[in-house]
Every structure is written in C-alpha cells, then in structure tokens.
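Objective 1b: paired records.
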Amino acid sequence: MKIKNKGRKIYKTKEKNYYGKSPTGKFFSALLSVLLIGGIGFLGYSVAGPWINYTRKQGDEEPPQESETEPLEEETSAEMQTESNEMLSVAENEDEGYRAFFLSEYDMSSTESIKIAVGRIPQEQGIEYIEVPLKLKNGKLTYESSAQQIIDSDIVQPEITLKEIARTIKKEGYMPSAHISVFADSTIPKIYPQCGYMITETLSAWQDSSSGLWASPFSSDYTDYLTFIAGEISEAGFEKIICSDLSFPQFSDRDIGELNDLRLESSERYTYLTDTANELYKTISDNSDMIIEVSAADVISGKAEVLKPLFLDVDTIILNINLDEISKGVDTGRTVYEFSGSVSENVMKMLELSESELSDFNVAVRISGGSNNTSDVLRAKDDIAEKGYTSFILG
C-alpha cells in the first residue's frame, strides 16, 4: 500500500454505533410489519427504509537515587517502555499492506469451487487475502442471505452461506475479504422501483442504455438495504469489505431532462455518494475494515465523484486498473489517452495519470481484466511495488 504521510491512518479506530436501531433490527421490524399487513404489494417510497430493517527518546542514565525512589523510577521506566511498544505497534499497523487475490463469481457456487479457485493462486507473491464477490454488479448475491425473505429468491445463491465462505478461506490459510457493488444494481430497482431513478412524466424506471437499471443514492430505502447486506457480511468474519460502484451512471442531457431532478445537476451531488459510503462505514467498522474501490478510467475522467477526502470516513482506496476496459483508450472529454503498451507500461501510465487525484488517500492497486497473461500481470505488480505501491489485488 502506498502510504500518504498526512497524519491519516490506514484504517480508523473501530467504534460501535449505539444510536438507534441496527440495520438488522430495522430490516426485520419492517418484515414483521409487512407480514402483519398481509404481504408485500406496492409499498410506496418508504418500504425498504426499514427493510429486513499509532518515544519519547531516552537520555543518558541518571545517577542512582536514594533507595526509596527506586521503585518509582522502575515503574516510570516500565510505563515508558509500554508506551513505546504501543506506539511501535501502531506504526507497524500503518505499514500493513493489503495483498489479495480476487475470485470470480463463477468460483462462488460452492465451498469446493472456492477451494479449487484458491489452488490457482500464484505462489510466493505474498498474497494474504482472498477477496470474494458477494454482491455483483447486477445486484445478485452469491451467498445465502437473510434478505431473501422479502426479495426475489432468484437474487440469492441458496447453496452457500457467508460463514461457510469465510471458514473455507481460513482453512486454506488465507484471510477472507468481501467485495460488494453498491449502486450498479439492476435487480433491486426492478422489484422496488423507488430504489432506482424514475422518469418524471411516466413514473417508469429509467434505464442506462448500456447497463440497464441503476440503484439511486437518493433512496434511503436502498441505503437501508445496503447497510443490512454490509452488516450481515461483516458479522460473518470477513476482515475487509471493499465497496465498488459508489457512483452515478452516465446521464445524457436527455436523461437529465426526463428525470427532472435538480439534485442530478448540482455541483454537490457527490454528497449523496459520500453519505452512503459513511453509512456503510458505520455499519462495517463494528467488525471489519472498509475500503472503497474506484475505476482508474473514472478517476482520470473526473467521474470518481466519491473521492472527497474531507467528507469521507474511509481513507483507503483501491484503484482498479481494468486492462480490458482501457485497451480501447480513455476519453476524458479533453484528451483521449491510449494504452497500447505492455501490461506493465499501461498500469504505470494509468498510475501516473491518477496520482494527483489520490494524493490524500492510502492506495492499493487492483490489476484486473481477464485477457492478460499471468506472468505479465505479476511483472506489472513488481514494477508498481518499486514505485511504493506494495498493496495489490490480482484478478
């Protein structure tokens, strides 16, 4: 991990949130209400809200004192040593890295398939974590979730539980991390339209021309659903939870007109993204560490709106350099950047272009894309390590 010496720690002290009802409590409170009413119908804009509701330097030795003061000196010396050890421990923690291997959704069908996938991990690369996709870009869950009690069962993978996934990874000698896609969710808005974007005139769901439905950061109902999912994952023993797609879809001028929502045109709309990130942080930090993942292409294009360090409780970012995505070039609106070099050259170029936007964060680099030779990716990993980026995710 490339550490920024700005007085910020990699991970914040975990503090429990004792205010109000937990997301789990809100979720099941709502479920009970729905069951009493007699089932789930059109619940308006308030249904999902409560959804499944881091020594001091020692000088020369002082002359021996009278015997009656010696115990005091010994006690003071012990206290200083303890303080020194504690500060050293924190310093070591700030140098902790995150070295992970990312499994695909196809590896998540069973504990046996996870074991097989773990067996493919390149050896002697210092990999310590296995990162598993638990909420996909389409919104589907790859594990058996309590949420399936009130959402379409087709969303949920019923054969494998969170604890089974975490236990399997630990038995293989690694630490488990989870990956969830936040707003790139085309499934929940299909069931609960109020969780997505709606066209003003027709009250029908807005869809992105290329990726379909998106969940909206304006929806408190959807935020409650997210915090429920994040809560049950963190409680299941996952060391870190990586949140990607904390972003808006790409709206055209026509889309903005159809949606007729002034918030979409506001220069401060990013606050809805940072607020959601902070809500997730409050839930996750009870048991796990939270990291935000952003697309490198979005960073250099100015589309990674969530990167507002003054507004975020999270200070570690994963820069996802998707080699397949950038292979056709990245158009920033002012410049078209081409990436026609080797894997290592393309990764280094993208890091240089992104560096200024990430200067206030601790950074780990993910090298993704399915069409690249493993040896080329490992060479790129070694090259970025020479530049100070010692944390990485492969896959």
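Objective 1b, second protein:
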Amino acid sequence: MSLFEWIGESISPGPTGSVDFGRRGRRQGSRAAVLACFVLAAALLGCWIYVLFAVMHAGLLALAGTAVYLLVAYVVHPRPELTNVGWLGGLFDHPFRYSDDVNRFLLFLVVVMWPGRFVAESLVATARLLARTWHS
C-alpha cells in the first residue's frame, strides 16, 4: 500500500467485498442436470489425477492437496465488490485506494476457486441424489 493509497482511502474509502464461509444454500437441480454435471466433474477430476500421476509423477501429497483445494473451494465464497476494482473495470489500479486491490484479489480468488467449486458441488449434489434415491 502506497502513501497515496493510504491518504486517499482515509479521505474517501471505497467499498470492499467480503468472504463467506459454509455451504451455499442452492436448490437441487433435476436428475439429468445433476448427472450431467457429475459426468463433467468426474471427467475433469479424472484428467487432473491423470496429470498428477502420469505427467507430473506426483504422489499422494498432491492428491491430498487436491482434496484440500476442493474442500476450500466448496466452503469459502469470496464476494468482491465489482463497482470498486480500479479504473476501466480493473484494467488500471486506482492510485488513491487500496480497497480496489482487495476487491481485485477477491475476484482472483473467485476465478481460481471456480473449477474446484464446480467439481465439489457436483460431487455433493450427486451424493445427495444417490442418498435420496436409496432412502426412497
């Protein structure tokens, strides 16, 4: 944080986003949608595991890292304030605010966690669908 950002933020603070924790309250989709998402998520996860073991020759630690990534992506939900990401939609840094840096970082986290959130939520939705089917 530069001196200009510190002074500018004290005069005119910009809005910042937040980070929510926990499971998102989402409506269960249709069986076809859940199964289609599961097939895509399983294919993505299978490709990633293939890359880990066959291409990168990684071990179980990398697999554990993938499980942690999926868990974090499922539980952590960054919410950037998109009206304050810098000048020209985030193309340039606002020289008198550091809150835009926080929002850009939250936006970066959204992009990085999106694939993991998709895979994790698809796996959980499929598990719920199977549990609901077996208990019926």
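Residues 86 and 135 are 51 Å apart (CA to CA). The mean pLDDT is 84.
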